[in-house]
Design brief:
The model has no long low-confidence stretch (mean pLDDT 86). Helices cover 45% and strands 22% of the residues. With 288 residues, the protein is of the alpha/beta class. It has eleven helices and eleven strands. The termini are far apart. It folds into three domains: 76 residues, Arc Repressor Mutant, subunit A (Orthogonal Bundle), CATH 1.10.10; 78 residues, D-Maltodextrin-Binding Protein, domain 2 (3-Layer(aba) Sandwich), CATH 3.40.190.10; 95 residues, D-Maltodextrin-Binding Protein, domain 2 (3-Layer(aba) Sandwich), CATH 3.40.190.290. Strand 7, helix 8 and strand 8 form a beta-alpha-beta unit. Strands 3, 4, 5, 6, 9, 10 and 11 form a seven-stranded mixed β-sheet that branches. The protein is globular.
């Protein structure tokens, strides 16, 4: 007997973006945080994509989301589809435009800390360029820098790649702060601790300082959202000192006693060989 007809694939790129984020995080909740959507929206998108390809893409054991063999195979195709789609959009949008298209990418929390203020400077003063801005996971950002579909990328780790120019952009000093005064680090970690994803180097330093810390109340990859949660609901967590300067000065937040600061650099990277070198150098000179 002939087999069942193959399913027709008519894919929304948002489904592929969601699939890749779940593949990266292995967690529907963290993928939802990164994509700024609800967890139910992530689940619905994955179900819709699975219906379109005609097979399961993830196993869903409790607290253990793993890609199936079909999910592993789809990853490569999904990345290529999204890369080609982004290139096509840029080519069409700027085909008859004299402005130079520049794509800026950053890991989500660096938008809050550094890139957004710099973007305002560019928006007010730069001419002759057409900007596209994206918040991307570190591995996706690095891949797209190498492909040339992102021109400048802001991240917490300096990529060791001879094809990329890498330079330090800002030095960040993270301090543990709390909504409660006179709190020790041990007490802060035990109750309502908010673990913010400030990149792998920060996570490694945090683990060295607190190797016996119990699981946090919440993990979150969006710094601004984490700060709003801290202000509105209370708790403790590490934040860049420059980000919470006003709250510390006003007494809305308090330094946690005995909690060492964690200092780390952020970096900006771009291709060594590019036809946009002049425009990129001009943008970087305006960096704050």
């Amino acid at each position: 007997m002939p087999g069942a007809p193959a399913p027709t694939l008519n894919v929304d790129t948002e489904l592929l973006k969601t699939f890749l984020e779940v593949y990266r995080c292995r967690h529907f909740g963290r993928a939802a945080e990164s994509l700024c959507v609800t967890q139910s929206a992530v689940s619905a998108r994955i179900r819709q994509l699975e219906e379109q390809v005609g097979m399961a893409l993830f196993t869903r054991d409790r607290n253990n989301i793993q890609p199936t063999s079909a999910g592993d195979r789809l990853r490569h195709h999904a990345e290529n589809i999204l890369t080609n789609w982004n290139r096509a959009r840029m080519d069409i949008a700027h085909h008859n435009d004299e402005r130079i298209p520049i794509v800026i990418g950053a890991v989500p929390s660096l938008w809050d800390l550094h890139v957004s203020p710099w973007l305002r400077t560019i928006y007010r003063g730069q001419r002759g360029i057409a900007l596209s801005c994206e918040a991307l996971a570190p591995d996706v950002l690095l891949r797209r820098l190498r492909e040339g579909t992102v021109d400048l990328g802001f991240l917490y780790e300096a990529p060791a790649d001879p094809a990329l120019n890498v330079m330090k952009t800002i030095k960040l000093r993270f301090v543990m702060a709390s909504s409660r005064p006179h709190l020790s680090a041990e007490s802060a970690l035990q109750r309502n601790y908010i673990c913010v994803d400030w990149g792998a180097p920060f996570a490694a330093a945090h683990s060295q300082l607190y190797p016996c810390a119990q699981p946090p109340t919440i993990r979150i990859g969006l710094g601004r959202t984490a700060l709003e949660l801290l202000r509105d609901c209370g708790g403790s967590g590490y934040f860049p000192e420059r980000m919470i300067k006003e709250e510390l000065s006003s007494g809305a937040l308090f330094h946690v006693e005995g909690a060492p600061p964690i200092e780390r650099n952020a970096y900006v990277a771009g291709l060594v060989e590019t036809t946009k070198s002049v425009q990129l150098q001009r943008l970087l000179k305006s960096r704050i």
